[in-house]
Amino acid sequence: MDVVNEKTSTIQPCTFTDELGAPVTPTSATYSIHDESGYEIVAPLTAFTPPDIIITATHNRILDSAKIAERRVITVHFTYGSGKEGSGEIMYIVKNLSKVS
């Protein structure tokens, strides 16, 4: 699992495959980012141009300063081909840097 320092922007590459695991090129794609519990929305549903998701420093902020790290979940949904759809999750860790405000 990737670890990102808090308040640091990053790029998350994505791989898109069909139901048989063959690579596909999406016609559209969206993502959202939540905390590990799924309750706190870090980034609302956002369209992006595959294959990379640009995650801003604001999205990688620490929500609870008492924690040494926080897990984020990126949920991706995409369409391809003739009305076909796919989805997936990518998890990563945001490391709390105690001196970053």
Describe the structure.
- By secondary structure, the chain is an all-beta fold.
- It has one domain.
- The chain contains no helices and seven strands.
- A five-stranded mixed β-sheet has the order 1-7-6-3-4, with no helix packed on it.
- Strand 6 and strand 7 form a beta hairpin.
- The protein starts with a strand and ends in a 6-residue tail after the last strand.
Number of strands: 7
Mean pLDDT: 94
Query: What sequence of helices (H) and strands (E) makes up the elements?
Result: EEEEEEE
Say what oligomer this is: single chain
Total count of domains:
1
User: Which class do the helix and strand fractions yield?
Assistant: mainly beta
Reading side by side through the largest sheet, how are the strands ordered? 1-7-6-3-4
Q: Number of helical segments?
A: 0
Biggest β-sheet strands, sense, barrel: 5 strands, mixed
> What is the helix content?
under 10%
Low-confidence stretches: none
Q: How much of the residues is beta strand, in percent?
A: over 45%
Overall morphology: elongated
Distance between the termini: 25 Å
Q: What is the CA-atom radius of gyration, in angstroms?
A: 15 Å
Features:
101 residues, mainly beta, two-stranded antiparallel ribbon
Chain-wise SSE layout:
Elements: E1 2-5, E2 10-13, E3 28-35, E4 41-47, E5 52-55, E6 69-80, E7 84-95
Parallel strand pairs: 1-7
Antiparallel strand pairs: 2-5, 3-4, 3-6, 6-7
